[in-house]
Each structure stands twice: as structure tokens, then as C-alpha cells.
Write a structure and sequence with these properties.
3-stranded antiparallel sheet, 3 helices, alpha+beta
Length: about 110
């Protein structure tokens, strides 16, 4: 997942915002957010390390942008899961124990990806 998220970012565009990246080595989890408050909480209280800005995305839908869904699996296997596929999102929710955290942001699709 880490590589996939790193590859969806674009250069700064009008109305684009940052996606902040954090990593928990102990949980083997990468956490991405457009919220400074969420990033700072993950670093200060949850043991994540700040990895800086991962990409530029959109906080609201613009022409041709698609949602990037964020899911979370609580417990000892603490894990965040990100996908642009609605069916993959539903499979993770219904079959793999993930909880829906909503739309993280909007991204421009990569043709053929």
C-alpha cells in the first residue's frame, strides 16, 4: 500500500492539499491524512513517526477526481487500508474485519491503473 499511495500524488495544483504520511514501525502500519491534527495526534499519542508530505490531493471532489477510501482494522493487527475501488472497499469491510473511516481525499485516476 505504501508504494501505491506514494504514486498517486501530483504536483501542487490549485485547490490541492497535502497528504501527510506517518509510519508505525511496531504496528507495521502507514497512516495517511490530510489533517494536521490527525497527523500530530498519531505522532504524539500513537507512536507514529512523521514522514512529511506524501502527495498532493484534493479535499473535495473536482472534475474527474475519484474518492480514496480509508479503512482501519483495529486490534493487534492495527492496519490502515486505502483504495479507490468501491468493491474492494466493500470486500474489506464485509470479509476482512476493517472499519470504514470514510473518504480520505480525492485523487485523479491514473489511466490504465
Amino acid at each position: 500500500m505504501y508504494k501505491a499511495v506514494k504514486n498517486i500524488g501530483y504536483k501542487a495544483e490549485p485547490n490541492a492539499c497535502y497528504v501527510y504520511a506517518t509510519q508505525s514501525v511496531s504496528a507495521c502500519d502507514h497512516f495517511y491524512t490530510t489533517s494536521l491534527k490527525e497527523r500530530d495526534n498519531a505522532v504524539a499519542k500513537l507512536g507514529y513517526a512523521n514522514e512529511g508530505v506524501a502527495a498532493y490531493v484534493f479535499a473535495s471532489q473536482i472534475c474527474d477526481a475519484i474518492p480514496l477510501y480509508r479503512l482501519y482494522k483495529p486490534g493487534s493487527s492495527r492496519d490502515h487500508f486505502y483504495t479507490t475501488s468501491f468493491s474492494e472497499r466493500n470486500r474489506a469491510l464485509n470479509s476482512h474485519g476493517y472499519e470504514d473511516e470514510g473518504i480520505a481525499c480525492y485523487v485523479l485516476p491514473i489511466p490504465g491503473f
